[in-house]
User: Fold this.
Amino acid sequence: MDRPELIDPDVVRTWLRAATAALGASREDLDRVNVFPVADGDTGTNMYLTVREASAAVHDADDDASGRRLLRLAARAALLGARGNSGVILSEWLRGLAVAASRGEGLGPGLDVAARSARQAVARPAPGTILTAAESAAAAARHAEAGGMVGPLGAPAHLPVLDAARRGAREAALRSVGALAPLRDAGVLDAGACGLVLVLDALAAAQRHVDLRAGAVSEADASMGPVLLDMDLRGHRPPPDADPAAPAPAGTEHAAADEVELMFVLHRPHHASGFRDGAVADALRADLDEVGDSVVVVGGSDGGEGHDDSLWQAHVHTPDLEAALEVPRRWARRGEVSRVYVRHLAVAAEDWAVVVTTSAPHLAAELASGGAVVLLDLDTAPTVDDVAQTVLGAGTPHVLVLAPSDVLDDGRLADATAAIRARDVARDDRAAIAPAPGVTVVAADDDVHLVTAVAALADALDAAGPAGPPDVPHVVRAALGRLRTARTAAAEAVGVLGGLVADVPAPGIVALLPDTGLPASVLDDLAEAAAALAPDADVVVLPTGRPGTGVGIGVEPASDDAAPQPVGGPVDEEAR
Assistant:
C-alpha cells in the first residue's frame, strides 16, 4: 500500500513555480532590507535563485513522479544552485522536507524536520532570522495538526496546517526587528524570515489551487493569484517585550569591510567510508568555523531509497581566503570539490558585474576585491553552465565574463545562458519581465590578463563621472591590447622577461605571478632583472597559489592617464 504523501506532486510543482515568481517579484524589496549577517543586499536575490533551480528540476521531472521524489529533486537542485547564506539555509530546509517525505511523515512533523535540519546546518544560529521563522511555522503547524486550530468545515486537512504555518512564520518575521541589534538599529524586518513567509504563502496558495481543481473547496476560498509580499519591511520599532540589549553576534557588525564569501560543493559517492551519518557536515562545519563566520553546511542524504551519491554545500564569510581554501583542499582528498565561488562582501556591483574563472587560488581574493565574482578551479574546473548560472544571477544590467578561450569558443556560453533563460521563461511567463543582462565575453587565457582586466575595469568605474559608466568592453580590451604576457618555466624566465620588456615602449608595470614551487632565488633574479631592464616601472609580485614551478609575466606600458595597476598594487622588498 502506498504511503500518504507529505505534499502531493501537483502541489509541489505548483508551489515551487509560485514561490519562484513570488521571490522574483519581491527580490529587490528583500535585498534592500538585508542587514544581517552582513548588509550585502542580496538575500532576496539569493533565495530567488535557489528556489528557481528547485522549480526547474521539478518542471523537468517525469509526469508520474511522486511528491517525495519531486521534493528530493528540488532539494538537490536547490543545494547545487544555492547562493549566499540565505539560499544555502533555504536549500537545507527543502532537504529536511524531502527527508521527512521519504520517511512518510505528516506535514506538521515534516515542517519540524525541515526547521531542525536548517538550524543544525548553521554553526552559530542567531535569533530573529529565517531559522526562527521556520521553527515558528513548524510549531504552529504541529499545534494545528493536534487540533488546536480548525479550518473551514470540509476543508482538506493540509489547508489549516499550512495556513497555521504561514501565520507562524509571519508572526516571527514581524517580531524579528526586536531580536537582533542590526535589525533594531535599521528598523527593518529580517529579509530571510520574510522570504520564508513568501515560500510558505506560495505553498498554501498552491494547495488551495490544487484543491479547487479537485473540487475539494469552494472557488471563493481557493483562487490562485500571484503571491505578494504584503508586509511593510521598513519603519519598524521593536515590540514592547523585546530585549533592549538584543545581541549583535560577534563578527557581524563590520564583517563586510574585509571579508569574502566562499562557497563550494562537496560530492562523495554513496560507498565512501570514514564518516557516520551526519558526521561529514559536522566536520566541515567545525573546519570552516575556525577560519570565518556565517558558517552554513547543508546536504547529505536526502532520505531516498536508492544509492544516490551525497552532496554538501558549504558557506563561510572569511577575512583570510587562503586559510579558508585549505578546507576544500583537504576535503578534495575525501571526495570531489566543485562550484568553488568567491566574492567580496564589501564590493557591490551596480551597472556592471564581472565573472572570472581561474585556477590560481591566491589570486581569488585579489580579483574579488576588484569587484569580480570568481569561479575557482580548485579540484574540478567550472563548467560553461556554472558560468552561465553566475551570469544570470549577477543582478546587473551588464556582465563582463573573463574566461579561457575554451569556455567561450563556438558561442558555448551564449548558448548555455540562452538555454537557462528560455527554460525560465517557458516555465513562467513572468520571468520575461526581468530582462536578460547584456553579456560581454573577453578571452583571458592567463592570470596576468585576468588581474589587468579586472583592475582596469575597477579603476574605470571608480573614475566614472556624472556621464555614467565607461564603455567597459573598450576599456578592458584596450588594457589587454597594451599588455604583453608570457607564461614560462623557471630556467627561461629572465630571458622571456627581457623579450617582453623590449617589446613595450616605456614599461610602466612589470607583473610577476609565480606558482608555489618557483624557487625564491628565481623570483629574486626576476625582480632584479625587471628593475634593471625597466627602471621606471613598478614591479608587482602576485603569487598564484597554484602548484608548479612556472611563472606568469606581464609588462604594461606607462600611460599619461594613469594606466591602472594590476590588483594588489606595487609590492615592496619585504612583501616579496
Notes: The chain is about 45% helix and 15% strand. The longest strand covers residues 260-268. Residues 150-156, 218-223, 248-256, 560-576 have pLDDT under 50 and may be disordered.
